Amino acid sequence: xxxxxxxxxxxxxxxxxxxxxxxxxxxxxxxxxxxxxxxxxxxxxxxxxxxxxxxxxxxxxxxxxxxxxxxxxxxxxxxxxxxxxxxxxxxxxxxxxxxxxxxxxxxxxxxxxxxxxxxxxxxxxxxxxxxxxxxxxxxxxxxxxxxxxxxxx
Length: 153
What we know:
This protein folds into two domains: 1-36; 40-152, SH3 type barrels, CATH 2.30.30.110. By secondary structure, it is α+β, with helices and mostly antiparallel strands. The protein starts with a helix and ends with a helix. Strands 1, 2, 3, 4, 5, 6 and 7 form a seven-stranded antiparallel sheet that branches. Helices cover 37% and strands 26% of the residues. The chain contains three helices and seven strands.
């Protein structure tokens, strides 16, 4: 076996080990969520929450990040899940798609962000670490309209 091939295979092995370690850490965190976090919390539509999305596959949203609750208020009272839209940090060089992205300006501990309308998810309330803030009425209306438009196309 030549040196270059050995080096490539070794780098691939290291990457696999790193991914396995991330997954193992997520499994431990998920076990803690299942055992200790409560799912009887009530969130209102428009709440900005910090969520542990965990370790996911491919380009799925993962790790701890902020999200917006868009479940109607009546659902939050009886369901152990809620519908959220994740946020990602705003960067000048990121491509913004007006049909599936919405720019949020500064909210409390959240810097300027992009609302990822196309990444809408139903999650267990146990994944929610804390409520951070609540959206301004105009922002919530615009986001709900984008979600509605997304499913009409």
